[in-house]
Amino acid sequence: MTRGDFPYCHRLRVRYSEVDAQNVVFNAHYLTYFDVALNEYLRDLGYDYHALVKQQGLDFHLVKSTVEYLAPIHFDDELVIGVRAGRLGNSSLTWELGVFRRDQDACLSRGEIIWVCAAVGTHKAHPLPDELVRLLS
User: How many CB atoms neighbour CB 124 within 10 A?
Assistant: First the structure.
């Protein structure tokens, strides 16, 4: 997995409050990094997540998240978080993510996030919105 494998990358800098006693990024922050990058990718695509909820009565439920820690990340490192759509199912969407230092191609961490589209209130699976499938295809 290299930076070139991703159509979108979000930049961020590791803050002091995100490192642990071992002076590396605390594991839970990776999911926050992934969430921020995913939301920025959708924003960059022009996809209105809030309209999905308000106008279509649909939402996404996180059903799986995985993180692989490949190399340490430290305070003040400048990172890019790569995002790409993996598998597009009927009602599920698998996101693939990679974390890289700004000026390097080696992957420091990779992750997978699986969302299921569901009707608000009922939590019953619903087909992925056509507009989102079109934007990601």
Answer: 9
Q: How many helices (H) and strands (E) does the chain have?
A: 3, 5
CB atoms within 10 A of CB 26: 13
- Residue 134's Cβ-side half-sphere holds a number of Cα atoms within 13 Å equal to 5
Provide the pLDDT for residue 56: 93
Cα separation, 95 vs 114, in Å, equals 6
DSSP string, 84-129: EEEEE-SSEEEEEEEEEETT--SEEEEEEEEEEEEETTT--B-PPP
pLDDT tens digits, residue range 21-33?
999 999 999 999 9
Global pTM reads 0.93
